[in-house]
Design goal:
It is built from 4 helices and 8 strands; from the N terminus they run E-H-E-E-E-E-E-E-E-H-H-H. The protein is of the alpha+beta class. The chain has one domain. Strands 2, 3, 4, 5, 6 and 7 form a 6-stranded mixed β-sheet that branches. A hairpin with a 4-residue loop joins strand 4 and strand 5.
Length: 156
C-alpha cells in the first residue's frame, strides 16, 4: 500500500481502485495494553486526485478483527470492525484533516492502522464477564476516614 506520487497521478483516471489484504501486526506495541492482536485487514476502495489542490483523497472500506482484553476478566475478546474512512493527502497544508506528503511516496498502512485505533472500542466486556463477578464493599470507621483524609490536619 505504498506508491509514489507520480504513480498515483498516472493511475488516477483509470486504475484508481484499491483492493488489498494487510498484515498490520508490526504496528502493535506494548503501548496498546488492551489490544492483543489484529487479524488480517481487508481494504477496498478508490482514490481521486484533485489537480488544482494537488490533493489525493482515499475513500476506503476497512474490515478487520481485533483481539482485545475484557475490562473485567482480562479474557481475550474478538471485536469485528467494518467501517468506511476517508484519508486525504496533499503536497501542502490545506486543513487539519489533510496529511501533508513528506517525500515522494504515500504509505497508507500507518494511516489505516490509526483509523482502526480511532474506531476500536475504548473497552470491551466478554459475554460471561459478570457470571462470577461480585462487588466487595468495605465500610470504614470514622477514625479510618479521618486518618486517611489528607486535609484532617487543617481542621485542627
Amino acid at each position: 500500500m505504498k506508491w509514489t506520487i507520480h504513480e498515483l497521478i498516472k493511475k488516477a483516471n483509470n486504475e484508481n481502485f484499491i483492493q488489498a489484504k494487510l498484515d498490520l501486526r508490526p504496528y502493535l506495541s506494548k503501548e496498546f495494553e488492551d489490544l492483543i492482536d489484529i487479524l488480517e485487514t481487508e481494504v477496498s476502495g478508490e482514490y481521486e486526485y484533485f489537480h488544482s489542490e494537488e490533493m489525493f483523497s482515499f475513500n476506503l472500506d476497512i474490515k478487520t478483527t481485533l483481539i482485545m482484553l475484557c475490562s473485567i476478566t482480562l479474557k481475550e475478546v474478538e471485536v469485528a470492525l467494518d467501517f468506511h474512512s476517508q484519508i486525504n493527502f496533499s503536497l501542502s497544508f490545506i486543513d487539519d484533516d489533510t496529511h501533508v506528503i513528506e517525500g515522494i511516496t504515500i504509505d497508507l498502512k500507518p494511516y489505516i492502522f490509526s483509523e482502526i485505533l480511532v474506531e476500536k472500542p475504548m473497552r470491551v466486556i466478554s459475554k460471561d464477564a459478570y457470571q462470577d463477578y461480585h462487588d466487595e464493599v468495605t465500610k470504614l470507621t470514622e477514625e479510618e476516614i479521618e486518618s486517611s483524609n489528607p486535609f484532617a490536619k487543617l481542621k485542627k
